[in-house]
Every structure is written in C-alpha cells, then in structure tokens.
Design brief:
705 residues, 6-stranded mixed β-sheet, alpha/beta, 3 domains, 19 strands, binds (S)-3-Hydroxyhexanoyl-CoA, globular, 2-enoyl-CoA Hydratase, Chain A, domain 1, N-(1-d-carboxylethyl)-l-norvaline Dehydrogenase, domain 2
C-alpha cells in the first residue's frame, strides 16, 4: 500500500501521507512525498499543492526506530531529508502544509520547507529531538529561527515542549488557523489567500527575524544547563541556532549535520531512545492482548481526601472523569477542596488553561462524607491511610456498595493486594493503582496485579493510565512492588554511607551529580521520617541491620519537611540546609555502633547507591514481579527521578557491563556481608555475558539465551 497518496481537487494537488500510527518519516515516506510533489509540479492543471496527514496526526517526526539503528552505529540508517526539503521549497507552485494533531521534529522540518502552514485550532507543534538526545537534524535549527526568531526557536528546541496553534500563529510559525474542515480550508487558502500574499517566499531565504543578540544565546545555554543537567543535546541545539544567525543557510546546515552526527553517537541518545520505547512497551502486557475488552470509566469514587486522594481526584477530573471524593471527616474534605482550588487557580495564573476549564474541573469533584453515588461508580480508588486492617474494612464496605462491574483499586504503596482483595466476594476485580505524589503531576502508576486480578481489569487499568496522561507499568504483588521494594535497600545503603563518614548532603550531592532529581535523604525528608518509620516497623525485619540514626531522628521529632527539620533543616519549608546537629548525631550513633569513619569517594557513593537498586531489581525481575527490565527502567525514570539520559537503572547497568557491576557488587559483598549478596540473576548474566535487556522473564533461567 502506498505511504503517500496524490489526488487532485480542482486546481489543487492533495498529497496525503498515510503511514499509521503517526505518519513517521519511515523509509519510503520522504521519497514518495518527493515523487508526489514532482508529479504535481509537472501537471499543468495544478496551481497549488496541499500536503496533509491521514489519520490522527500530521507527521510526528522521523521514525525513531531508524534513529535507534543509526545510534547503534548502523551506517545509512535514519532519514536524509535534505533533497525532499529543497524540492518542496523550490516548487514553483504554492505548497501549503495542512496540519493537525502533533507536528513534531522532522514533521515540523517538512512543514517549514512549505510556503505556508495552516492548522486546526487544536494542533500542536514541537521540536522534541532533545528528548531523544539529539538536535533537529533536517535543517530545523536553520529554518525555525528564520520563521519565529532565535529566542523562540531556542525555547522550542531546548524545552522540547510543543506549542499550541494560537501561540504558533502569533510567532509566525503558521499562517492561519482553520476552524472548519482542515483540507477544505487549506485548499481555499491555497487558491484564494496565498496569491494575495504576493510571490512565493522560501523560508531559507528569509532573514528578517535573524537578529544576532549574544544575550539570547547565553540565556539559552543557561536554561539548557539548568533544565537539561549533564547532557549536551540542548546546548548543541543552541549552537546550531546560533549558526543560523551567524552563517549562510548552507553552512548553518552543515554545522547542524556535524552536531546531529555527534549527538547520535552519544550514550545520552541511545539511553533516551531506549526510554522512549520502554515507555510504549510497558503498555503491552503479554497475557492482556490489545483486543481485551476494557470497561468504560465515566464515574470514579475515591476514598480518602488526603494528599494522594486529592491528587488522584484532580488527575481524574483533568481527564473528564466525574469524581466523588469521600472522607469521614468534613475538615479533611474542606482542606482537600481548598488545596484543589488553589492548585487549579495557580494553573490558570500560569496560563495552562482558562478559568472556565478550572471551574469545570473543580465542579467535577464532589466532596462527601457518605457512600452516596458509589453504587454508580465505574472505578473506586481507595486512598486511605497505609494500614492493612483499615484497608480491609474499607474493601469489605465497598464490596457491599459497589456495582458488580466496578473496578476496585487500592492506592497502597506497600501492602499485600491479595490480602486486601480477600475480604471481597470479587477478588478478580481488585487491583493496585499505586500513584505517586503529587498524583496530578507525577506520571507513573504502578499497576499491581493480584493473584486473581482479571485481564479485563488489567486492560482497563492500562487504558485508564493512558487516559490520565500517565505511564502505567504492570508489576507483581510483592512487598513494596517494584519501585519501593528497590528504594528501601537504596535508602538503607545511603544511611550506611552516612554512618561510615559522609554527610547526608555529600551523599545527596553525589547522587545529584549523577543525575538523580533529588538526593535520597532529601526524598526521605519529603516523604516523612514517620512514614519510613512505619514501613520499617512492618518490613524492617526483612532489611536487617539498619543504621540507627534514622530512628534517633524520629525520636527527636524531626519528621522531615513537615516539621521543618529532618536529615536537613528547612527554613522556607522546602530547601534542604545542612544541619550540624544531625551530622553530629550521626557521628555519635556511628561511634556507638563501633563504626570507624572515613572519607568516602563520590564514585563509591554512587556505585553503592545505584548498584543496590540494580541488585534488588535483578531479584524482582528473576522472581517475575516485573515483566521486563525495561519496565523497571520506566518505573525509576518516571517515578523516582532516575535520569532518563541514563536510561534507567537496568539500562545503566547493561551499559556499564554486567560483569563490571557484578564484580563491584561482589567486592561490597566481601566488605559488608549479607546485605550485598549478589542477586543470582546478576551473577548468571555477568558470567554468561548476558544483559538484563536480553532476559526474558517468561522463560526459566535455564532457557535464557
Ligand atoms: C526527529 O524527527 C529527528 C528529525 O529532526 C530529523 C532527523 C533526520 N517514530 O506515544 P504513543 C509510535 S526525531 C516511530 O503511544 P500518543 C509509538 O512507538 C522524532 N514510532 O501515542 C507507538 O507505537 P506502538 C521527533 C513512533 O497518541 C505509537 O506510535 N518526534 C513515533 O500518546 C503510538 O505512540 C518525536 O519525538 C516516531 N516518531 O502520542 C515524537 N512516534 O503502538 C515522538 C510515535 O507500537 N512521539 N511512534 O507502541 C510522540 O511524542 C508521541 O508518540 C505522539 C503520539 C505525540 C506522536
């Protein structure tokens, strides 16, 4: 079947790209577009050309699978769009790009070679290459600043964030917003409005917006360094845009090509491409095929109006789901609604949506102290206090009020789903939906499959996560599931390091430099020292020994950010400040425990923290609580602040080489004993030269390649 179709409507040739699902510029697409443009140009009855995408979107960019092959070193992989873009731009007939959905990366680069761009009001336009560790590689860094100026071009290429149609119109990226039928509007534009705008202008010949202001580039580099810590793509994008201003078009393109080649060869690019596909792969669960029936979710009910319950309520309301938010205490509901209102007001102030949209979302959340309306809910999410007896009582009550086809979910972060489900008469409809705080912002949802959870319920949970704009990852029902099960030994190791001589801020500093969004001590303070204390009460026996300083902290009432003091002190409530009192307390507890202290190098801090994560993850994978190594990567990147440009802990370990990781883990094992016992899977893969990525969880260990 053709990837590109050519038809005519009166004097207008219509070139339709039809490469589902997102019209990526896979091999064959650029060639067929070029052939269609050439045919249209030769046809004397054609006065203008409209290029449009079939299906849900205009072109969403280069085919990332091709880029993946190019990044792996395959020569000739990845599109070369140069001749296509020149052909479009040099076409003697007006070329109008008709855009809907998401025009991204290479899609924008094709569009910018056109003479005009029109778009549907809900279309979005972006240069997301930076999210894949590269820069726009098809002359985008040269044409974009010619259309919208260097400052706006830098903003788009460094942030990778798409802009909406009204902003694109204001900037000059598009020429008109088409309210009605896009194709009709584009054809009308091509024959009636385009001629009125004078002779055809090639983007590459425009220069009126190319202002050389060094402050703009310095500010761009500053933002790139701040927002894209430890990475180079955003900085290189600024360099390439600067070349658009300082060099003629052809030389600027050459500079762009050099930079994109360099980026494609980087670890950063390979890791980010892995992260992209890992997220999409997480949505595919072997025993939940695509055609599994899913339940429509129009009405949800949430039990518990604390921070989690309120965040989940907002996430649902944002996606058009009506919510009943129940708590036993009226004051808790009042507090939740006040914080929800404040949150929406702040979004309106930041221009994310209008006051009208905010009002609709607030109205979609109905606070109540009783169970009224729960009988109509398609989905009920329990977000109460983390206590097994309480959760069991609530599920017993829910079993009595919920309709037969309702999905019953718990937001527990550590408790046994099967035990919770056991109090209901329908354990097959019970599932864990572990949201992360703040639940209206954080993208991860661990979808916890109980022993009896039905496939329909799993499929519905995956669809729900997508609808909420989140990434759902299915995990098994083990202590702490995947994410928290890994975090506990990681946190413990960090505390051992502190006991041995590093301050919390030194440990956090090393983790920050490694690329973690937050250091682990700061995370502990944010989550609450009391919360960790309760978890240790429940599971501490599984993680012995545990350094005693944290319990001292608890006894001192230093519960973290909420009390202004924890591992750090907080003067503004949020910014951690070193506290000599805590550092002295750690030194005293270390002395009491007979630990001799020393200065610990940064690389040891990082190895001990990150390899603790990897070693526990290897157990999770081998025990079958995660389907694939990449799922664990997605969990850590989207829920725990692991740097995406390192791909996730499993990708990071594979990239370092499992032999090297195993040797280091074994060294720590010899030094520290049992807590560092290498996971059997890590040992086996290291010895056989395997990788976590190549491990197939559906096969036994003896059947692995
Ligand atoms: C680029 O253009 C470089 C250039 O400068 C030129 C270089 C010379 N390629 O996300 P979804 C697949 S870099 C291949 O679930 P949504 C995706 O894997 C590229 N495949 O849907 C999935 O497949 P599957 C710049 C792609 O509606 C399916 O489409 N562009 C591509 O939530 C559905 O995806 C980008 O970075 C692709 N480009 O979101 C855009 N895009 O069903 C990246 C998607 O088998 N893409 N797929 O799992 C996105 O941001 C989102 O996918 C999009 C749709 C917003 C388009």
């Amino acid at each position: 079947m053709a990837l590109v179709n050519l038809s005519t409507r009166g004097s207008v040739a219509v070139v339709t790209i039809d490469n589902p699902p997102v019209n990526a510029l896979s091999a064959g697409v650029p060639e067929e577009i070029q052939a269609a443009i050439e045919a249209a140009e030769k046809d004397p009855s054609v006065q203008a050309v409209v290029l449009i995408g079939a299906g849900r979107t205009f072109i969403a960019g280069a085919d990332i699978k091709d880029l993946e092959r190019a990044a792996a070193g395959e020569s000739g992989a990845g599109p070369d769009l140069h001749s296509l873009l020149q052909r479009i731009e040099d076409c003697s007939k007006t070329v109008v790009m008709a855009m809907h959905g998401t025009a991204l990366g290479g899609g924008m680069e094709v569009a910018m070679a056109g003479h005009f761009r029109v778009a549907r009001p809900d279309a979005q336009f972006g240069m997301p290459e930076v999210n894949l560790g590269i820069i726009p590689g098809a002359e985008g860094t040269q044409r974009l600043p010619r259309l919208i100026g260097p400052a706006a071009a830098i903003d788009m290429c460094v942030s990778g964030r798409p802009i909406k149609a009204d902003a694109a119109l204001m900037l000059g990226l598009i020429d008109k917003i088409i309210e009605g039928d896009l194709l009709e509007g584009a054809i009308q534009f091509a024959v009636e409005l385009a001629p009125e705008r004078g002779p055809i202008r090639k983007t590459r010949e425009r220069s009126e917006k190319l202002v050389a202001d060094s402050k703009v580039f310095e500010a761009g580099r500053e933002t790139a360094r701040k927002t894209r810590r430890n990475t180079f793509a955003a900085l290189d994008a600024v360099d390439a845009i600067e070349a658009a201003v300082t060099l003629p078009f052809d030389q600027g393109c050459r500079r762009e090509r050099e930079l994109v080649r360099k980026r494609l060869e980087s670890d950063e690019c390979r890791a980010l491409i892995h992260a992209f596909f890992a997220e999409r792969a997480a949505a595919k669960v072997a025993d939940v095929p695509k055609d599994t029936p899913v339940l429509p979710i129009a009405k949800a009910a949430i039990l518990g109006a604390g921070t989690m319950g309120s965040g989940i309520a907002m996430a649902c309301a944002n996606s058009g789901i009506a919510v009943r938010l129940k708590d036993v205490e009226q004051w808790a509901l009042d507090r939740a609604m006040a914080s929800i209102r404040k949150n929406y007001e702040s979004s309106v102030q930041k221009g994310r949506f209008t006051a009208e949209v905010a009002a609709q979302r607030i109205a979609a959340i109905h606070p109540q102290t009783g169970y009224e309306g729960f009988e109509d809910a398609d989905l009920i999410i329990e977000a109460a206090f983390e206590n097994m007896e309480l959760k069991k009582r609530l599920f017993w009550e829910l079993d009595a009020v919920a309709k037969a086809v309702c999905v019953l979910a718990t937001n527990t972060s550590t408790l046994d789903i099967d035990e919770i489900a056991s109090v209901t008469k329908r354990p097959e409809r019970v599932i864990g939906l572990h949201f992360f705080s703040p639940a209206n912002v954080m993208r991860l949802v661990e979808i916890v499959r109980g022993a009896k959870t039905g496939k329909e319920i799993l499929g519905t949970a995956l669809a729900l996560a997508k609808r909420l704009g989140k990434v759902g990852v299915v995990v098994g029902n083990c202590r702490g599931f995947a994410g928290n099960r890994m975090m506990l030994p990681y946190m413990r190791e960090a505390q051992f390091i502190a006991e041995e001589g590093s301050t919390p801020s030194e440990v956090d500093g090393a983790l920050w430099d490694f690329g973690m969004a937050m250091g682990i001590f700061a995370v502990d303070d944010m989550g609450g020292i009391d919360v960790g204390h309760r978890v240790r009460e429940e599971y501490g026996h599984l993680l012995q020994p545990w350094p005693s300083a944290v319990e001292k902290l608890y006894e001192m009432g230093r519960l973290g950010q909420k009390t202004g003091k924890g591992w750090y002190k907080y003067e503004d409530g949020r910014t951690p400040i070193r506290d000599p009192e805590v550092e002295a307390m750690i030194a005293q507890t270390a002395q009491a425990a007979g630990v001799s202290r020393r200065s610990i190098p940064k690389n040891e801090i990082v190895d001990r923290c990150i390899y603790t994560l990897v070693n526990e993850a290897a157990r999770i994978l081998e025990e079958g609580y995660a389907d694939r190594a990449a799922d664990i990567d997605v969990i850590y990147v989207t829920g725990y602040g692991f740097p995406a440009y390192r791909g996730g802990p499993m990708w990071y370990a594979d990239s370092a080489g499992l032999k090297k990781v195993y040797d280091r883990v074994s060294e720590f094992h010899r030094r520290y004993g049992e807590r560092w016992e290498p996971a059997p899977l890590l040992k086996r893969l290291a010895e056989s030269g395997g990788t976590f990525a190549g491990f197939d969880a559906s096969k036994t260990i003896d059947q692995q390649p």
